[in-house]
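Revision sheet: C-alpha cells.
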Amino acid sequence: MGNAPETEPTPNRSAIIRDAIGIGVATGAYALSFGAISVASGLSVLQTCVLSLLLFSGGSQFALVGVLGAGGSAVAAAGTAVLLGSRNALYGLRLAPLLKVRGLKRAGAAQLVIDESTAMAVGRDSERAARLGFWSTGLSVFILWNLGTLLGGFGAQALRNPEVLGLDAAAPAAFLALLASRMRTRQPWVIAVVAALVALVSVPFVPAGVPVLLAAAAATVLVLRARSGDDTASVRPDSVNAEAGK
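Predicted:
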C-alpha cells in the first residue's frame, strides 16, 4: 500500500483571528493620537484620513506630519516618510513566497504589508497559518487604524488648541518606545548618539525635515560599516592560515 499524502497542518483559526483582532484594537488606539497630531499639525480631517488610507504606515505617517508641523517642506516630509517605509519592501520579499497572490489581490496584499501583519505571518508552522495570520491581522489593523484616525482627527478638530494636550510630544515618545527595546548593546547606542548629534548640528543650517534625513544617512553609514567589520571578523585567523598553508 502507498503512503497517504501528507496534509498541511490546519491552523488554529480562532487563536490567530483573536490575536489579529487584539493587535488591531491596540493599533487603532494608537491611531487616535495620529489623527489628533495630524490635525494639530495643520492637515484637515479629510487629508488625514486619506493619508491613512493610502500610505497606511504608522511610522511614516507620524514622520510626515511631524515634518510638516515643524514647517518643513513637502519634499522633506515625503523623503522622511519614504525612508521609514522602505522596510516594508523587504517585508514584501519575505512574504511573497508565503502568500502566493496574483493580480488585484497582490495589490491588496501589498497595501497590508506592515510590521504587525508580517510578524503574524512569518514563523508559522504552515503556509495556511501564515496566510491567515497575514490577512486577518492586515485587515484588522487597516480597518481599526483608519477608524482611529477618523475619530482622533474629529476629536482634535473639536478643540480650539489641540497642542495644549501635549500631542506634539506623542510622536517622539512613540518612536522612543519603539527604539528602547533595541538599545541593549553598545553599538545601537553609538549609532543613535552620532545620528542625534548630526541632526542637532544641522538644524540651524538646513530646512525642517532635512536633519532627520541627514541623521538617517549617518546611521545607515555606521550600520553598513559595522556589518562590514562583523563580516571581516567572521573570517577566523586559523582558517586563513590553513588556507595559506595549502
